[in-house]
Amino acid sequence: MRTVGQLLKETREAKFYTLEEIEKHTKIRREMLKALEEDDYDKLPPLTFIQGFVKNYGKFLGIDSQKLMAILRRDFEAKKHPPVVMESFSKPMTHKKFFITPSRLIGIVVAVIIIGFFAYLWIEYRQFVGGPKLDLASPQNGQSVEMTSVFVEGSTDPETKITVNEQEVGTDSSGYFKEEVKLSSSVNVITVTATSKFGQSTKEERTVYIKK
């Protein structure tokens, strides 16, 4: 039985699209698209965002959204309830014990410090030379609603300022945000802007229609 990732990848390759082209049209980062195709949910945000990504990706490829959501739910259920492996097979017959010595402990601490330092430098450099990430899970572009308001939900880099239609909204420590926006006409353009502490910005726009 094919997974969501396999279905998306096979359809994309059948239509001769590259991940770069998909990223350009869906505004979903290439790393996220690759993780989706590989069913690597550990590299993806919570399920709400994954559903938005899958719907957006599938819509561009012309795949039925309900079919994709059904497969996605099945994949998540399978992940929560993996096949039971007999204990005799899950545990090796012999294994070597790993002992922590003072020299090994010092080496581990030094390695963690070095990795953390370079990770910090990379994050600062990326924020300085380019705009912060901005992943919008909702609303979808061209979405039609019956209510007079809609929730704008997404994620960005930590310590990044988010504005929705030029009004600043709060984010949590991981960069997640959710804000209700009032709709004033039949056609509403919602502009979301992420601005880093270095002044670099990334902007996304979504058009939402009110059903009459």
Explain the layout of strands and helices:
Blueprint: H1 4-14, H2 19-26, H3 30-37, H4 47-61, H5 65-80, H6 87-90, H7 102-129, E1 134-138, E2 143-145, E3 149-156, E4 161-164, E5 167-169, E6 176-182, E7 187-195, E8 201-210
Parallel strand pairs: 2-8
Antiparallel strand pairs: 1-3, 3-6, 4-5, 4-7, 7-8
Helix pairs in contact: 1-4, 4-5
Walk me through what this model shows.
- The structure is a single chain.
- With 212 residues, the protein is α+β, with helices and mostly antiparallel strands.
- The chain has 3 domains: 4-80, lambda repressor-like DNA-binding domains (434 Repressor (Amino-terminal Domain), Orthogonal Bundle); 96-129, no CATH class; 134-210, Immunoglobulins (Immunoglobulin-like), CATH 2.60.40.10.
- The chain has helices at residues 4-14, 19-26, 30-37, 47-61, 65-80, 87-90, 102-129, and strands at residues 134-138, 143-145, 149-156, 161-164, 167-169, 176-182, 187-195, 201-210.
- The strands form 2 sheets. The chain has a 5-stranded mixed sheet, with no helix packed on it. The chain has a 3-stranded antiparallel sheet with strand order 1-3-6.
- Strand 7 (187-195) and strand 8 form a beta hairpin.
- Helix 1 (4-14) runs parallel beside helix 4 (47-61) and helix 4 runs antiparallel to helix 5.
- It is globular and about 70 Å long.
- The relative contact order is 0.11.
Explain briefly what this protein structure is:
This protein is α+β, with helices and mostly antiparallel strands and 212 residues long. The protein has three domains: 4-80, Orthogonal Bundle (434 Repressor (Amino-terminal Domain)), CATH 1.10.260.40; 96-129, no CATH class; 134-210, Immunoglobulin-like, CATH 2.60.40.
